[in-house]
Amino acid sequence: MIQKHASSKTSINSVSAVYTQNLDKFVPGSTILDYGGGRFDTNAEYMWKKRRVKVLVYDPYNRSPEHNEIVLMQVSARHPDYIVCSNVLNVIDDDAIINSIIEDIRRYADPTTAVMFKIYEGNRSRIGKETKGGESWQRNQPTEDYIPYIQKHFPDAQKKRGFITVNMNRRSRYRFRFLQTLNILPNSLITLDSSW
Fold this sequence. Notes:
Layout: H1 17-20, E1 31-35, H2 42-51, E2 54-58, H3 65-77, E3 82-86, H4 95-107, E4 114-118, E5 129-131, E6 136-138, H5 147-151, E7 158-160, E8 163-166, H6 168-181
Parallel strand pairs: 1-2, 1-3, 3-4
Antiparallel strand pairs: 4-8, 5-6, 7-8
């Protein structure tokens, strides 16, 4: 499907709140598929430096076809531990495309993959409008408006602390215990937060 408003102008060179506000939720040694992660490597560099977590960025509007093909080959061969979709759904003006994105994310998740969606809510008016001189779109919808879309593909999706999450508890605890039994986690990184 082709978007009427391309998302290439919406890429921002800063670390996403998904990573800064949930840093201790991502287990060292794990892999994240950052779906729609933009043209910058800021998130990948941040997560590697802070947690030794590998971030694979897939973005059909901001990365080359060759780059995206390599990322999809990697996550097809071994499902990622986490999938992050940050500030992507809110710049799509077509509900069918939103559904196809979530369906695609579901394709790369296994039953234990933790998935996290972050939504930029704009002015929360629920009135979408063109931005950046008509080159992009903002839906202006609150986060909870996206839950029905996501629950079509992830029935246990729920809003927590401003994010829509799937399996965050299960994945963090499973991966943490697995790495701990292998004695891979340095003591300085053993900070699992059970609040999820």
